[in-house]
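User: Before I run my own analysis I want an independent prediction to cross-check against. Here's the chain; please return only the structure tokens and, at the end, one sentence I can use as a sanity check.
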Amino acid sequence: MIRATRVEKRYGRKWALRGVTFELPRSGFLVLTGANGSGKTTLLRLIAGLAAPTRGTLEIDADRADLGYLGHEPLLYRNLTALENLELFGRLYRVPERRERAGMLLERFGLWEARAERVAAYSRGMTQRLALCRALLHDPSLLVLDEPFTALDEAGAALLDRELADLAGRRTVLLATHEPERVAALATERLALA
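Assistant: Structure tokens:
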């Protein structure tokens, strides 16, 4: 599903990524590791189509509409409620029965009781849970997650563990993490950036 050949990215004079090569088959689960500043976020942004490589080739066998992305920013509207956010993104992605799908995800991620609250009133952990709901709303075949466990309490992390275990083998997943042992059993591929 994804083939990267000597992919590089430069911002001005600074190289954020150098010579990355890998292949990830459909339904594969790639765990991306490395120190801060090693290029993990840059690589995921390239795969999500939010930036273009400076050099090398990046082939992705999926439409952008079939990609779920969770970055460092939750990409939610803070003045809307959780339900309003998911309804908006459901319309953008043309999700059939979007209200039902949104409700199911809010329930699954423990946000149903807070569905009518504005996101501005959410804790950081609740916001991260809602961002995960947004990324999963349209049932993407390719899921790109940058440090998805950030700000989650133990209950939230356990919810995400179960969700990732359910997606493994059914969806293509790229996940950057500083806790690779947490998802080691799910990984079909590993890539350490220096």
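Sanity check: The domain at 1-62+143-194 is CATH 3.40.50.300 (Rossmann fold).
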